[in-house]
Give the backbone structure.
Amino acid sequence: MAHVHLPVVGSVASLGGETAGALPQDPLLDNFSRKIRYLRVSVTDRCNYRCSYCMPEELGDQLVFEPRSAVLSFEELERLIAVFARLGVRKIRLTGGEPTVRKGIVELAQRIAALPGIEQVVMTSNGHLLGELAAPLAAAGVSAINISIDTLDAGKFHALTGRGDLARVLAGVDAAVTAGMRVKLNAVALRGVNDGELVALCEYAWSRGAVPRFIEHMPMSAGAIYEPARGISAHAIRTALEAELGPLPARYWSVSGSVSGQGRASATGREVGIISAMTEHFCDHCNRLRLTATGALHACLGHDDAISLRDVIRGGGSDDDVVRAIAAAVTGKRAGHVFDRSGAGAPQKHMIGIGG
């Protein structure tokens, strides 16, 4: 993927941190009193799909995979996540790229799940390889998985994903359910693509005991692959669903970034989520950081600045140096993103490199 060029990957000092001296008193408390408990970890920049809103073929030369030497090893990932656990992170989400294409992903999941302090290891996947991997991943400690499935039409699915096989993904959903994972099905809501399938996607998810979630189309890659006219607002999604499913309390429809995960259950006991990053921001409750496959720590999906934890550890830094670097990133965490429905303010980084 794009030497997933993260435009501003700085040192600790460049973002106001220190590499020496006393450790910060509370490294995971940001300037807005948000406590970090959740780390999203991209384990690879590679993917076996080419989804139009993430990594389309037409980006061409802009999408070049990082050399393997630049990607964090299992030992480096384990060390960094252990430091985060020591600081209070309790939930790890494995992302990509597509995490299941990382060789040894089951072993990595098992190693992370065994770290003291880590209470949840979960994953986001396109589902293509889950038919074979769901059971081993569950046995390794992956307790929940979000599977991307934007349409139930095989032709549309293949066109949208570039290479996707809907039958394989549906089999992967069933395999994850059978393995005992908690399953959520993610669909990017796109006008003219799946706007007529929102209820069908809900009903399919519920038939499998899964939770459907609709994600607003977001501008990434400097807006190069963002088409504002394709976006569907959270309000429009709610309206479409309520037209066929009946009225549901508004408070149940928005997914916030809170630890409790409030706002998902419907009045009937079925659940649905809407990730409303564009029109109903939930930044005030953000409790997460993102670590790329090459060790860049991002405090916000919507901004490009980052601190390289890889440089800290490969430069001989101690775990305390890692703590100081993490604290510098957390201190620099913004109140929220600045992109809007026109695509203005879009970060330059690619969604494929940050794992959503």
Observations:
- The longest strand covers residues 182-189.
- The chain has one domain: 8-354.
- The chain has ten helices and eleven strands.
- The domain at 8-354 is CATH 3.20.20.70 (TIM Barrel).
